[in-house]
Amino acid sequence: MRLWQLRYVAFLIQIIILLFLVSGCSTQKNTARSRWWHAFNARYNTYYNGTVAYIDASLEKENGHQDNFTELLPLYPVGSKSSRELGKANFERAVEKSKKAIKLHSIKKRPEWRSGKRKTAKDREWLNRKEYNPFLWKAWMLMGRAQFHSGAFDEAVSTFSYMSRLYQTQPSIYGRARAWLAKSYIEQGWLYDAEDVIRNMERDSVHWQAQKEWDYTYTDYYIHTKEYAKAIPYLRKVIKHEMRRRQKARQYFLLGQLYEAINQKELAYQAYRRVIRLHPPYQIEFNARIAMTKVMAGTQGHQMIRKLHRMAANDNNKDYLDQVYYAIGNIYLGQKDTLRAIDAFEEGNKRATRSGIEKGVLLLKLGDLYWNREKYDDAKRCYGEAIGLLDKDREDYGQMARRSEILDELVPYTNAVQLQDSLQVLAKMPEAQRNAAIDRVIKALKKKEKEEADLLAMQSTRQESQDDFNTPFDPQERMTKRNTLPNVNGQRSGEWYFYNPMAVNQGKTAFQRLWGKRENVDNWQRINKTVVSLEQQQELSELQLDSIRQQENMEDSLQQVPDSAQSDPHQRAFYLAQIPFTPDQVAASNQLIMDGLYHAGVIFKDKLDNLRLGEKALRRLVEQYPTYEHMDLAYYHLYLLYSRLHQPTLANGYVQRLKTQFPKSEWTVLLTDPYFQENAKLGVHIEDSIYAATYNAFKADRYDEVLANTHISETRFPLGANRDKFLFIGGLGKLNRGDATQCLADLHTLVEKYPESKLSPLAGMIINGVQAGRKLRGGKFDIGDVWSRRAAVLSDSDSIAKRTFSNERNTNFTVMIAYHPDSVNENQLLYRVAKYNFTQYVVRNFDVVITQDDFGLHLMKIAGFLNFDEALQYARAFHKQRALASLLKHARTFVISDVNLELLGTNFSYDDYDKYYTKHFAPLKISTFQLLTEPTEVKTQAQPKPTLEEVDRLLDDATFIDNGLENKPLDSGTYVLPEEVDKTSNHQGGTIVPVEQPKKESNSGETVIPLAPRTTSKTPLPADSAKTKSTKPLPANAKNSPQKVPTQPVQPAKAKSKQEPNKQQPQRVGETIIYFEDGKTAKDKTGKPKTADKTTDKNKKKKKKAEPKVIDFGDEYYDLEGF
């Protein structure tokens, strides 16, 4: 035959063999051939693509992640919220590929077993498995790990929970899944759930192949629970497991931080030194050197400071000067030298080129020092800048935010007092001394401006030189690059505008040049407007409005042409214009001092709890400025202050002053009240009880009782927390008794004294309606009856008014539970609902969401019903649960379509829908079939048949790599797996499966591939058949003779002379052994691990060196080690 004919025949034979293999490898069959084929196809097709995507995502996250070395490093980069989006696209691709591998290659069908054959413990374990593809657990693990590292911890918890149930009989896989499940709980902050998983695994023995993952889990758990001493031994094991140098450097740095936390400075120093020896990226190395100086500062402080100054002089560290000086300041603090520490921190703040977390930590530490030294102006500056640089998840962020808020309120008053005191001192000085003091201020201002200009010029020059270095020679490319450069010099690429200190300084200067120094308050450029106009405003004519505009424009033009000398801070006239010389100017200055002393004293006393400074400010006020208009308030606060200091004599002295000087003051009435002590202790509870009784009396039309309780509130609790409510309900009570004038008076008082109250807008609308000519009418209504309220009114647009409820039943429905938040234990209800859905409806996924409407009701919406029948069946079964029924005594349940839900509470009230439901939906008959036991979508999985193109591709490449997700998973994230089909057996109730007889090994160098036997009967016969009598043993001298593959599969294979009939052994394929039982090692007849046969004595040593590689589908770390 010719060559092309031989090739054609070989091609046809290959096609026939391939079609035979593919046709016999359905997931509905569970044979050795089908398991091998699906394991092989899953590994080198979809799983391979998912692995590549996972590794790319891991590298992207590793390279893009920026650690915050001022805090304890997270064990995993995903522990930092700023890094969770890195690599997310590739992680999602890995998840998709894993889902596809599971969907296409999962073998759920239980293998058949030969009747009469005794089952060992391993046999029973193997038969009780729920997944028989020996490789597919890796796809599950890849999917869970990708979800974990992408920050989708809920999905990871679901994956690993299901995986631990699926592989419960296989300890190595089960242990890994439980370890990752615990890590998913830990990263979510669910430490109790993680502890439960850990405790259960400690009760059981952890498989040795899963020990590595548990070392990571224990480390992460003990770090999150702040048990650092327990975390250190496991972290040292993790470092031994780690294969990537950068991650190992991070872990050594974390080890040093843990040693430092338990005050083992020498071991921390050694750990930081190991970081440097690994030659990590410069940022990690630099921070390790900084940390080394910190831990050794106690014994070698001066040496460490000199070393840090040398680091500051190095050009490589020009972007890390804030950290260098921060370390220097910490060393000084350790030496109890606070002044030098402050100088070092200020130098670091001044020379910082970045506005990041490191600078924020420095400013926070500096602000704390100023706070402790009672330099609140400097503390305000530091806190105000640090609060925008630090993460809100820091433990000390709340304290810093509270302090910053208090100082924003305090410092303007203290600065005003200090400035006016200084100006008054200057006014009393001789002219020569005054001018000399002003000249010193001007000189200091010019020096500061020169330093800032030099710094800006240096940064600008550095940026221009860097731009010139990066500028291309091509003019077109140069122009393109110039257009993409930032508008502000010195701004780094990809950096936010306000992180550039030079840009911020330029913006501040430009703002102050245009607007001057303004107080940092909301709506600083607007005039405050109240809700209600208390006086009738007279409408002005167009002529009058024009004249007013002309006058305002004239005044603005005069204000825009000030004296140039008085507006220039470099001239004496600028400062002389602020000094109070005349009596009127001195009086205005004293007024600012008095106001500042009062407010500062109250803030010191109540918010800073600094009674010493509060006493100092208030005592100065009452002693130096007796004409202060609110002196009674000052006496009242001094009484409270001395009461807290347990000095009753001084406290009672200020009560006597109130009685003498202000007998009619409300504070005098309050302090002389015989119930003052009782009100101070129990006043809040008493007032709440009186208001509850007043509200109930109003609903019951007992208006006399309402007015009596309102009078008690006015006389006994004039400053109570419910005073605004008493005014409103008392006014309505007077209206129902026919006194509309007194009702309006109470509403006016409510608007004037309590503009921040929630009732103030409602009272204002009533007043405006009366002023517009409407009449007040009394009537009974329930303020708390939210079920009959709606937000839309009759005057709304036609498009809203025309919308009505729909009676369509074949649309998406929701079961909604509405309740007052204080009438139902919401957390327990949510838990019960979730547990009920999870246990009762396995094939359906319901979304449970809790929202709040405009009337204060909480709405628990259970969505996912395709029609009215499903929703009503669920609601009926739902209310039959005793645990749930007891929680829903004070709640209302609605079965409502999504279309009608949009109108509920806006166009229509809850009562309106209740009536509509009773009329249109209640009479409907629903299906008696249990609809919720069926999934929302049912997909049958058809076994695809290879086309001719696919066969050609398979023959050319030996396999094919999938480049896209052809079969998308369901929207719910579940997988439709083929159901098992029970086959009745005709052999004593059992099912017979063919068991292949071990073939005799061939040393001829040929590859022997065992083929599953064919049979024409419905029940396949075993390979070694029941007819063992016809099988003859081989002669002893033919032990190593080669055997041919039988051409008729129904014929039993020849057995060895010493054969164990019930023991299966892995087959030898060339020089590669492939076996499918996890945790089981291939052994020969002697019980030792099985190796390849040696051909001759000549190549014995060569064969010993190149032992056959065992492809173990149970070892995950050959694929993703280090990731």
Automatic annotation (TrEMBL):
PROSITE patterns: PROKAR_LIPOPROTEIN, TPR. Gene3D superfamilies: Tetratricopeptide repeat domain (1.25.40.10). Residues 1038-1050 have a biased composition (Polar residues). Residues 459-487, 983-1106 are annotated as: Disordered. Transmembrane segments: none annotated. Pfam families: TPR_8. Keywords: TPR repeat. It comes from the Bacteria. Residues 1077-1098 have a biased composition (Basic and acidic residues). TPR repeats lie at residues 249-282. This is Uncharacterized protein. It comes from Hoylesella timonensis. The lineage of its organism: Bacteria, Pseudomonadati, Bacteroidota, Bacteroidia, Bacteroidales.
